[in-house]
Amino acid sequence: MTRLSKVEVDRKWWEIGDFFRRNSLWLLMYCTGCCAIELPPAMTSAYDMERLGMGPMATPRQADILLVSGYLSLKTLRRLIYSYEQMSEPKYVVALGSCPINGGIYHDSHAVINQLDQYIPVDVYVAGCMPNTESVMNGFVDLMEQIRNKTAVGWKKYHERFEWYKANQINSLGEIDVHDEFHE
Amino acid sequence: MTNSMNNVEFVKNLVQAEITPLGVETVDRYQVAFVVAPGDVHHLLLKLRNAGWIQLSYLSAVDWLEENKFEVVYIVFNWDLPVYIQVRAKIDRDHPVIDSVLPIYPGAKYYERECHEFFGVCFPGNPDYEKQLILEGWDDIPPLRKDFDPQAYSDRKFPQRVYTADFSVTDEQNTKLTKRQLRKQRAASLRGGVQK
User: Fold this and answer.
1) CA A5 vs CA A9, A11, A19, A148, B131: distances in Å
2) Which of A89, A34, A13, A25 is closest to A57 using CA atoms?
3) Contact assignment for A108 to B150 by CB distance below 8 Å
4) Closest Cβ opposite residue B137 in set A108, A114, A174
């Protein structure tokens, strides 16, 4: 009997971890826009997210999925980057609606960004304005499939291309630190 | 006063006893607008507040680019008499300055900050009017002015997703569709042979 190498053992452990992880996903719902209205039917008895092992989570540090539902203004993006960097790894990002994809109906707004994946890596996009609840649920199932196939690697990409993401963030935001009068 | 048209007449008499408005417009049964000179705004608002219009519902500006004017609009509300009163005053667009109404309506604090942020109107008398409220680190002319081009700003500031001319969201190999059809056939065959 041959001993497995460390890499192989690690991979096995990751597969076991991923099995449990994908069957128990906790969402951090960052309900920025109108797509958030699709979440109540997805969570409650109509579509019952719990049967997929998913549930809402209160804090970023305990959540697996960052759910961006809708448009992101510059002000929101700052807070979103904070939340994303606070989340423990592995972490996944699901973006609902057409606004994070290409700006949607806010493509010419002075305050709304056009492309979320320039700032943080996105694993699953659910297109539509707004997507119906079936597609939202389908997006979650796709994410589970991606975790099983080891293709949900957005958080690794964020490490690899950290400089690129930071440069984009600074380019659009000017400064990532939050300065507001209620916290100073 | 149960008849609401009488209410509007009552308000018109009340205002005309104080100042001579440049124009009066009855918007509907519950709303009446007065166009006044910028110098009369504070006098009129003080009188209205003392007459019962204790709530400043909104304060904003309208940009009249062709006339080179900003029109500052105050909307006040009375909880006892169902009439909104709009007070409008046109101020110079190049030097948009009008004294704050903070001593009359303390709630104007945030409205004035918002108005300064989006239109660039200055409100001396409000100690905070220049502080940022909604936009963070804004680096251009105020965004709700008519000569501001949001599309150009968005193009300059935010990366755009580029699509090819023949872009399509459908899967070219249609792998999912074929797989789904195969699954359906398989399911049908298991149910008892409606196989095709």
Assistant:
1) 6, 10, 21, 22, 60
2) A25
3) yes
4) A174
Chain A residue with Cα closest to B134: A75
Alpha carbons A184 and A169: distance in angstroms, whole number: 23
Instruction: Determine the topology of domain A26-173 in CATH.
Output: Rossmann fold (3.40.50)
Q: Determine the Cα–Cα distance for residues B39 and B159; give it in Å rounded to an integer.
A: 46
Residues of A within 8 A of B161 (CB-CB) are 101-103, 114-115
8 A C-beta contact, residue A116 and residue A52? no
pLDDT tens string A56-98: 998 999 999 999 988 988 888 999 998 999 999 889 999 998 8
**Hey, where are the domains in chain B?**
4-163
Q: What is the CATH number of domain B4-163?
A: 3.30.460.80
Chain B residues 149-168 with CB within 8 Å of chain A: 150-151, 153-154, 157-161
Please tell me the distance from the alpha carbon of residue B5 to that of residue A178, in angstroms, as a whole number. Answer: 51
Nearest C-alpha in B relative to A128: B169
Domain ranges across chain A: 26-173
Which DSSP helix (H) or strand (E) runs through B31?
strand B31-36
Give Cα separations from A93 to A66, A153, B47 (angstroms): 5, 10, 56
B134 burial via Cβ count (<10 Å: 0-12, 13-18, 19+): middle
List the one residue out of B150, B139, B155, B166 whose CA is nearest residue A102: B155
Is residue B135 within 8 A of residue A179, CB to CB? The reply is no
The bridge status of strand B84-92 relative to strand B69-77 is: antiparallel
What is the ipTM score, two decimals? 0.79
> Which residues neighbour A36 within 8 Å (Cβ) at sequence distance 6 or greater?
A29, A69, A70
Determine the residue of chain A that is closest to B157 in CA distance. Answer: A172
Q: In the structure encoding, which two tokens stand for residue A76, read together?
A: 């929101």
Cis peptide upstream of residue A130 (ω within 30 degrees of 0): yes
Peptide bond into B127 cis (omega under 30): no
Q: pLDDT tens for residues A39-49?
A: 899 899 888 88
